[in-house]
Fold each of these.
Amino acid sequence: MSNKVAILIIDDEVQMRKLLQITLESNDYIFTEAATAKDGMIMAVNHPPDLILLDLGLPDEDGHTVLKKLREWFTNPIIIVSVQSSEEDIVKALDNGANDYLVKPFRTGELLARIRSALRGIFTEENNPVIINGDLQIDLSARTVKKNEELLKLTSTEYSLLALFAKNEGKVLTHQYLLREVWGPGYINQSQYLRVFIAQLRKKIETDANRPAFIVTESGVGYRFAAKE
Amino acid sequence: MSNKVAILIIDDEVQMRKLLQITLESNDYIFTEAATAKDGMIMAVNHPPDLILLDLGLPDEDGHTVLKKLREWFTNPIIIVSVQSSEEDIVKALDNGANDYLVKPFRTGELLARIRSALRGIFTEENNPVIINGDLQIDLSARTVKKNEELLKLTSTEYSLLALFAKNEGKVLTHQYLLREVWGPGYINQSQYLRVFIAQLRKKIETDANRPAFIVTESGVGYRFAAKE
DNA sequence: CTGTTTTATATAAAGATTTTATAAAGATTT
DNA sequence: AAATCTTTATAAAATCTTTATATAAAACAG
């Protein structure tokens, strides 16, 4: 259920992969790697990444051919990272469907900026994290909650509480934990707050507030956000 | 109506414009040019091109500022062509919405390939700079707003605020975010500004200002521009 | 196991506080 | 001078906090 961006590196140089791994992971991307064209293709098919960084100088197959094959079905951005700096290579790669071409050695800041640029537009609408549970929809990026497609009016505290539950579906969240996360560390003894707000939330999100289906009470412990099919 | 692709060059060097004119026209692009930021903006608004080649070193205004201003409404590709080769400039430009960055002097074949790459997909996605929501029409390129086909008179700040809302329909925008985007980072505590301007905006765009349908208050958090069918 | 006691939870409603809306006056810019 | 921005003041609305009481669950004694 991660909303992180996955990037696949296809490059035969170990050092380069290591460098990219460190760079990408420290920037919150999910890093996967392949050392050969064959492995790269297989990985791309099995777990289509959001972006591919492709080296043209692979041992088992010509980079331009790999690019062409990928482009037969892969529509997300592909950025070429290559030691080849000839105009011929660059033009060929771009015309074969590469979104960008960076010559090695490159500056990591520039690579990251070009990755962000390539990803822009791909993740405008589709990739916003919406948690769906039964007839409830929680849009974390828009900060909105819908029940049966209808927008609910929640106060800021009610929303924080619900979002916290939604992010921890199925888990029992203790009173202490909920109070600390939503109200702050100084409020861990204000259990009554929690009761009041849980009651208000239930009135808004539950179909039958007397028989709560979303927010279930775990007496003596806390509450649990139950998953619905 | 020609189906040729129109490219606008904004660059103060005469030789560069001449070189690009020859290169582009011999490749079947329609070439238009501007020597200053001001002229470039005017031309872009009057005849929105399919792609803009922008030089960062313009005499009358900082290139990064020009890019930002263009990106407020211009959604087609912008490729930066600049003598500046510092990582800082490249990263800044790409993060400000440039699609690509080419350092001068460049190889014309590579430029053409990067233009082709940037143009790819342009004609698939719709990029209408007019946002329509109910009886409200916001033309981002003309900076005009119509309510029931009638032109509204908005101040520049009111317009910036409304345009920001329109670009983020359905999302809750926090006070901080709005203040930072419209007034600048030094104003994030001036919530009262926001209240005053929201009230003014509502008086102009809402049918019933007492029951706001477009700009909805999210108490304690911010405001949301609601979608109307 | 059953009824009683104790503890925990649910909910409404009143009071307190915070946040928001709006007008209008003063300051600044065009 | 006109338009716009900034500040101040105040009323209204929304939200939070507290209190009171009802209900449900757990613990316990017999």
Amino acid sequence: MNNREIAELFEKVAYLLEIRGDNIHRILSYRRAGETIRDVSQDLSELHEAGQLTSISGIGKTLAEKIAEMLETGRLEFYERLVVEIPESILDLMRVEGLGAKRVKLFYDKLGITTLDGLQEAAENGRLRELPKMGAKSEAKILKAIESLKKHGDGRVLLGTALPIAETILAELRQLPVVTRADIAGSVRRRKETIGDIDLLVAASDAEVVMDHFCGLELAADVALRGPTKSRIVLDNGVGVDLRVLPSENWGTLLSYFTGSQAHNVRLRELAKKKGLSLNEYDLSAVSGNAPPILCETEEAVYTALDLPYVVPTLREDRGEIEAALEGRLPQLVQLTDMRSDLHMHTTWSDGKASILEMAQTAQANGLQYIVITDHSYSLGIANGLDASRLRQQAEAIREANEVIGPDFEIWHGTEMEIRADGTLDFPDEVLAELDFVIAAVHTALKQPREKITERILGAIRNPHVDMIAHPTGRLIGRRDGADVDLEAIFAAAVDHKTILELNANPHRLDLQDTHVRRALEIGVRIAINTDAHHPDQLSFTHFGIATAQRGWATASHIVNSWLPSEMRTFLMSK
DNA sequence: GCCGTTTTCGGCCCGACTGTTTTCAGTCG
């Protein structure tokens, strides 16, 4: 079993224990273990072999034994015993919004409901309302939630989808005269790669006006709840948007609280507690005595009150940032303004939508100093890939574009060359030698067994002409899992051969992902943040890559795009 | 089930909203 499968099984165990009515803290241990394991970039099997499973925070003796059992046997006896007691299909019911363990258990115990369809039928036939604490309204809500679940799934969307929506709504609310402050909070602010709910905070002299406007937004397909300080609308795509209208004198604690993550908040509260303070969304108050509560108008003030340096939202995941803050070793994270290049983009020569010059001019307007044009190579026929002859014609076109754009900007010539299914490359060394920068990538046969696909990529890394591996796992978030590659081996080889690995900034990819970046940097891999733009507009994807790099604790010195053209040349010469 | 500068026991965050109650349980974040 791999990390993801182990994480999922622990999360299922947590739900089953919850339905069974087990101790809440035991349940949370399993749930947190699942969440933590999703964040671990190293393979659990490696940690197991090294006897280091319990070095993962939240994994103690018992859970380490269970992980070992799953790794060695591919099964978890504890889970198998649980599903004898409670049918596995019941877990589907927990995915219905508004249903938790208590009601799911009630439906099972009293009506024998074990499936989503069974629940829908019972609701349609008015059988749920006969149960204690249930009524017609609850029944209708459940039907609606089932419909939404069947239509939209769990409703997680890409950051690239959620962020523009959040910014649009925020901009509209800011136009209301009563609004004095407005911010995005939650996972959008932390720039998580996928988003469950959009969280917005507003300070206003009249909450009612804001709520009216919010619930009446054209985007709102449905108003899920409406209170004096909190409302929630649901959009056509199934995404929920929560709005809280709150006072501004304690904006710092509010923004901090609603930005999360929950795990980070828990750590902050523990720190507060050790100082004899209680931290909630409203203030920091003394646990005993009658000192007046501390109001924080800024987040900086919250961290200062806890004797911590400010922790930026992209780090707030309880992945060691609290410890680093306490010890004064928070990283100086890479910023958008550090970027001087984009090393991966396409033009009309292959499957891009704009000319070399259009891409270059947009990149220059975005503040870059140089770019590399990297159209596809010929075996990716679907993308109109270039053969050696067209590649040489393109070299001429790039020379011409350089003349037009003038001396303040450089257009380099490169390729995004296929690593074919058999591991061979699309161009021979003598063709690659003519290029300024060579990317190699896999786009096909991503389902190959681990050893085979890993060896394909390792082969490319070992080729002295290959400067970078693009989107190393090939994942498309929510659509396609990445290839089963041995990233540890790839990171080690990338260091040995001075091969750059890409953090692809396209919001569908974000590959390497944040946890991979973190691990790669520990090993000493050089990372590039590139847009892989197929259109000038997509050159603005860089900020998604920056956010992901920050979530991977990257500083400017880790990111090769911070180098001057001359520095990059020197590096490439040294390979 | 985890964890420890209150360390091997006893904590483990807590407030808003809804629907069903007649004072609160369930769910969510």
Amino acid sequence: MIKIILPDGSEKEYKKGISAGEIAREISEGLFRKALGALVNGELYDLNRPIESDSTVKIITDKDPEAPVIFRHTIAHIMAQAVVRLYGKNVKLAIGPVIENGFYYDFDLEEKISEDDLPKIEAEMKKIIKENLPIERFVISKEEAKELFKDQPYKLELLEDIEDETVTYYKQGEFFDLCRGPHLPSTGKIKHIKLLSVSGAYWRGNEKNKMLQRIYGTAFAKKDQLDEYLKMLEEAKKRDHRKIGPKLELFMFENELAPAMPFFLPRGAKVINELLEFSRELHKKYGYEEVITPLIMNIKLWHQSGHWDHYKENMYFTEKDDVQYAVKPMNCPGHILIYKSKVYSYRDLPIRMSEFGKVHRYERSGVVHGLFRVRSFTQDDAHIYCTKEQIEDEIIKVMDFTNELYSAFGFEYEADLSTMPEDHMGDEKTWEVATEALRKALEKSGINYKINEGDGAFYGPKIDFHIKDSLGRKWQCATIQLDFQMPERFDIHYVDNNNELQRPVMIHRAIYGSIERFFGILIENFAGAFPTWLSPEQVAIIPVSDKYIDAAKELYEKLDSEGLRVKLDASNATVGYKIRNAQMLKIPYMIVIGEKELETKKYNVRTREGNTVEDLELEDFIKTVKEEIKNRSLKLSY
RNA sequence: GCCGACGUAGCUCAAUUGGCAGAGCGGCUGACUUGUAAUCAGCAGGUUGGGGGUUCAAGUCCCUUCGUCGGCUCCA
């Protein structure tokens, strides 16, 4: 007999080898029907897998966060089964894991699967679901497994890497797959599935390996969850900054002549300048001094910095008078030259040097993506030169800075702390001190963070920040990196209180990260409807007919002189048409001016959200909007 | 870079089996003088991404090149 402890704390004795399914059935038939799997001592179990020793058992139903892992994994198998049915036995199966919002499976087969084939595969999957095939788990020796999977080269390769002597495989109808599990008890349990896309993927993500065909899909326990997810994808598509951006005349690309290098149009440049202005205010507040460095510098600099050795592939080069130059991919070497241009006392530290540095990095053609991944972009970069003792304080200041900046956009965020990788520079003690300083700063800030062991840069540990947008998507933006290498390479120092030369620590940090990228995130987050302070145009003036253009011009002058960004629509169109245009450009406020306004000197203000406020005194409107802008408010005032 | 899909007017998209390149929006011109999400009419706009080939004939078929899109991290 074994002892089973349930989540409510109750204990019961069962026969050894009892399954979670049987336990569930004993509790209630309803629970058994809803059960998808179980958590046994924290490990996910199939419903019918025997429990061999004293355990805590929690039955998983579709309400539990673990549920999708189980049923999506099963759906991945169902998809593989469908593909084998449709394309024949010569399909070679690779891997089919669960991912954040769904699953995929990689196949190696002669025929090309295209998006057009997805409905066919989906239909076959639904058939398999309808067949409600029982899913069985088998434990076999590795030798037996090699025999069983002798026609499946990828499975054999996976077997090579498994250290345990026994492995498990799962079988449903005619289909079986090497798999750790767990799975649903039968293929009929989850019905709400959708195949999303096909793509190529290298075996084990390594581009030296064969390119396989990958099918992505998703599955949900409830139909409305699936619908909601598909709706979210639709919404994300509608907000795609690559579509909205050109439509709102924010930016463009010229694909032939400057691929992956954005051009900002007048409306976009206004937003960017507001972002820079905001950032400058904060930089000033947090004690930074702005510098400006050259875009291209002699190749010698890049040899000394190590970029030639480690980053050459991503750099652009140019030549003049037989001298080789590199276009800067990073700002640090330039900043170091400024640091080196004078002698610092320990009293001067920390030195906080910032730059809106435009950098160029060659990115492979397949990875560029709108404003999110480009070849030329602007970093809100800064380098802090300080003593080891100052690291923690400085990190905390950077985190405060980050918090203040992100809050202004309403973003929540999380952080990752990446520690010493195997291949690293500098002694381990320095790493320890530095990592500890980062960790302490994170603790003090109270933000959510997780540790990525061994994921730091070779020159120092780092913290990355991920913001969450209005659709719940995460984006990496800010980064704080400690650097022990650059100060060594450039032999920089400060004079300590014993008049001895000391090596400062260098902290790289960026908060927006890339202005271009952050701009793209903002476009998607606000779906193009920027808060007033960021809006390219803040007020649209719409004369009822050309009789009122002079009055409209006067109003324009007034608002313009108050520092508002105003658009006067003097076109010969109807009011409705001009309202529509302003609406499409997502201009926050619209003022129609006609006979009534001339008489009363009071105005009706319409917002892009469709609200209309009547009979406003102009001075009140100006005051309110100016206040809204000054506060960088996320909400409209009316 | 690699796998797959795609590239037609400024934008969104049409164009039977290869058979006269079209529409809406936008633009221009004119009429209308407009009251809170599209007034009406006329006109202009194209080497069908570039280059090469097959054919009596290519937007359509083949080759090549450039670019765009979905992916290539999630380890049975």
Amino acid sequence: MISKTEFIQKLRNSSLRPTKQRIDICDVLFNREKTFHFTINDLFNLVKERKDQKASLATIYNTVHAFHKKGYLKEIPINSNQTYFDTNVTDHHHFFDVKEERLIDLKNEDVGPIDIQKSIPGKKIKSVEVLVKLED
Amino acid sequence: MISKTEFIQKLRNSSLRPTKQRIDICDVLFNREKTFHFTINDLFNLVKERKDQKASLATIYNTVHAFHKKGYLKEIPINSNQTYFDTNVTDHHHFFDVKEERLIDLKNEDVGPIDIQKSIPGKKIKSVEVLVKLED
DNA sequence: ATTCTTCTTTAGAATAATTATAAAAAACTA
DNA sequence: TAGTTTTTTATAATTATTCTAAAGAAGAAT
Ligand SMILES: [Mn+2]
Ligand SMILES: [Mn+2]
Ligand SMILES: [Zn+2]
Ligand SMILES: [Zn+2]
């Protein structure tokens, strides 16, 4: 359970002013047991449900991108019309349940080591991500 | 070099009427040495450049989705605002050059075999795809 | 060939996600 | 407190994609 004060600290350290909206968004995003995969709309609705505070859709977009830029959120490429974000910013892989449109974390040990035996001159590898699509 | 007649045959066999537009799109897409990664807009412009024939944007969308449904094109999930398609419909992986926004095929032998050591009850694996992001 | 039926193309409207704008509000500084 | 900067917000704009419905083309039947 991360306290409000801790969020304020973290925001300040990131040169982001600790506004009510941002603190609330932090609480929704980071006070969780498990990693959280969400779309902008998911987050908007979760924040809206809380009686104490609301944030406009624009603020959700702004904040998610601010957090993403600071490295507190990760963007997940899935074949969908909406962008997914992930509170787990470590390098890891995913199941994607196509029917339920749901992302599930795969630990690195659930997927063997992947070594890429090809290289492109002048380019280096930034990330290696596996997406495993699931069907019924 | 695939002939017009062959495209007509293939379209007919797929219960798609061989229209001028579709034949032209086939020519742009499938008369290539290498696999072709493209967005709807890329294709629209390539077809437009040809003096002999033009196709509306709506037709490009319609045709790409018809071909996709028939299994002649593959959709590639990358973190972008546009959907990418691929004329290589076999199971394979990709490099994605983030700066140049370009996809490059990886052969299966360029990536070791990937075995997923986790399963979700009631679900089976549909596909396993690796996306390797490249930076300078 | 002529007519009929079905499919396809197309322009333009509609939708949906995202980004931009700019004024009011909140946070910070002096 | 007053001044400065950042943030929020409503709203407009943009962009990719899908929908609609009328005109055109293709195929089948006559
Ligand atoms: Mn994850
Ligand atoms: Mn490919
Ligand atoms: Zn972002
Ligand atoms: Zn499709």
